[in-house]
Every structure is written in C-alpha cells, then in structure tokens.
Amino acid sequence: MTQLQIGPHSVQPPVVLAPMAGITNAPFRTLCREFSGGKGLFVSEMITTRALVERDAKTMRLIHFDGTEKPRSIQLYGVDPVTVGRAVRMIVDEDLADHIDLNFGCPVPKVTRKGGGSALPFKRNLLRSILREAVGNAGALPVTMKMRKGIDDDHITYLDAGRIAVEEGVTAIALHGRTAAQHYGGTADWDAIARLKETVPEIPVLGNGDIWSADDALRMMRETGCDGVVVGRGCLGRPWLFGDLVSAFEDGGASYAAPTLKEVARVMLRHAELLGEWLESEERGVIDFRKHVAWYTKGFSIGSDMRRKLAITSSLGEMDALLSELDLDQSWPAGADGPRGRTSGRNRVVLPDGWLNDPYDCAAVSADAELDTSGG
C-alpha cells in the first residue's frame, strides 16, 4: 500500500484531513479516525500563533488531542516570523504536537486583508523568514505547509513558494489547485499539482481540491504523480469517506460506504454527542452541530420543514425524536457523493494597501496582522 512519509511519521494510506475552521475539531477528527481505523493524518483547525503564545482559552481548547491521536497535528496561521517562531518553540517545549503545518492557503477576507493565508506567499522574503523561524524552532518536529496556486491568475506564486520551502527545510507541501480569487469555485487545477511535484521532487507533494470520493483520490495521484491527498469539503457530513479511502488504497475499493438514512442518523447523533462532551454542554454541542445537518442529509427525501427543524434543535433528545420521524430506510442517494460545502467563487481578493507593489517588500505587513483568535 502507498505510504507517505512526513518526517518520522509514516502516513498510511497517504491521506490527510484538511484543516477546516469550525469543522475539524477533536470530535470530528474522532469520527473520521474511527471510520478509517486510525489510518491517515488528521489535522487540527487553524490555530493563530498570536493566540497560542498568549494562551487564549479558546485556542488552548482547540489544540487538545486525546490519547488516541497519533501523530498529533497542528496547523498554525501567522504572518509575523518572530511570533510564528515563538509559537513553534512553545509547541516543542510543552510537547503539544508531533507535527506542525503552516497555513498559506486560507482565502477568506479577514485573513488575506491582513496579508495572511493565501496572500502571504506573494511576499517571497516574508515567506522565507516565516519558514526559517518555524523550521529553526521546530527541533525534531516536521514542518509542512499548505498553499494555493497564488492570489489570482496574474499573481501565481506556488512554484516560487515551493522552491523557498525546500531551501528552508520544509518537510512536505500541500497544494490546493485554486487561486485565492477562485475561493472554492470552478474546478481545481490538478495540472498545477503535477508541475509542483516536478519542481520540488526532493520532498512529498500533496494534492488538494475536488476530491469528492475515494476514486477521485486515486485518480489525482495517478494523474499528477503527487505523494498523497488532502481531503477537505468532500468529507463534510461524510466522515466515513476516510473508510472509503482506506479501502481504495488497500484493496482497490472493494467496499465503499453507502449508508442508509438510519445509519446516517446514528452518526449524526454521535457527532452531536461528541461535540457536547467536548464543549462540556449538551446544548452547546447540539447547537454547534447544526451547521452539519445539511451536509449529512444531502440528497435524502426529508423536506424543507424537517430540515429547518433539525437545524434549530437544542438537545440530543429533540434531535433523536425528529430523526425518528423520517423514513430511515432510505438508501444512500444517487449523486450525494459529489460536491458539498462552499462552491462559489469570488473575483477580488481583499489585500492590504499596496500589497502587490513589490513581491520582496516585507514592510507592507501591518502591525496588527496577527489575528488574536483561532479557528478562522
């Protein structure tokens, strides 16, 4: 079976759960790991380096891993090299994780308007400084990075960023085959993943974008030559996708999940229950789960009124009662394995004033560019 090496960690099969704000918390990672039999790599939500070094209460909750998570993987967001270095040193000194991933791919305006996420690789020297601080403070911990093709079609950065990453000792690179301007719209450019692999053959390259099924993952690796895949929106409301991925890589896809609505309902209740335990409040857990309802029920014959009721529940009992009213014998809907989550694009990327004037000028980063909260 294909194996991915991230520093000392063997990831088998070569499948990584993409960090997603408000989604890839400990409860969701638990579900995904259960379906995969513990195989693969499951990364935390995006953690802001400033919030980490300041020990923000929400951030400290987000970096909690239970004893079954090995390796423990944290994704960091930061734009200030010194703060990034301090956060990485804190992780090492306090044994908070076994692997650090750096976010240079987030396209949301509150991140890019400060020069972070997918905006940052345009500033080549700033990117190099951040990577140097991270790797230099990581000790034996592997440091990887996730990025996009660039800001837009006129400002493509991924090949330069890949070369800089190799020079600074980054262990692996994940590329989402879209620009920040595309957001999540259009079709991911898998050819860019292939070009990056050709450009930086020294380290593993992981592909990300439009993996909606286990067969998509196999096809991406076959067509691009990448060393592994990163799965994001494809697993929304489908944590069993990781079981499919294990099956695809181990036995060619002999057994893929096609759960009935009854089986899906059981997973929904377990997900909400895990969130309640994690948040130490059943009500908070069920409320947090509301965002997942549409993803889990996509394609099933439920009706808009029932969907609305499920999306405003506040207790496990209420949720269970509503689910029991459904026709739970429904088979897995045709087409439900396709695109899910955000699919819209946008044409303009919000950037700091003058950001595109000079790709080598670090001075354009504002003093408040470090977000003070995580999970964004």
TrEMBL record:
Cofactor(s) required, per the database record: FMN
Catalytic activity: a 5,6-dihydrouridine in tRNA + NADP(+) = a uridine in tRNA + NADPH + H(+); a 5,6-dihydrouridine in tRNA + NAD(+) = a uridine in tRNA + NADH + H(+)
Keyword Methyltransferase applies: no
Catalytic site positions: 106 (proton donor)
Keyword Lipoprotein: no
Residues where FMN binds: 19-21, 75, 146, 176, 232-233
Known EC number: 1.3.1.-
A Pfam match: Dus
Domain DUS-like FMN-binding span(s) in chain numbering: 17-320
Keywords noted in UniProt: Flavoprotein, FMN, NADP, Nucleotide-binding, Oxidoreductase, RNA-binding, tRNA processing, tRNA-binding
Cross-referenced SUPFAM superfamilies: FMN-linked oxidoreductases
GO molecular function, one term: tRNA dihydrouridine synthase activity
Family per similarity comment: Belongs to the dus family.
Role this protein plays: Catalyzes the synthesis of 5,6-dihydrouridine (D), a modified base found in the D-loop of most tRNAs, via the reduction of the C5-C6 double bond in target uridines.
Protein name as it appears in the record: tRNA-dihydrouridine synthase
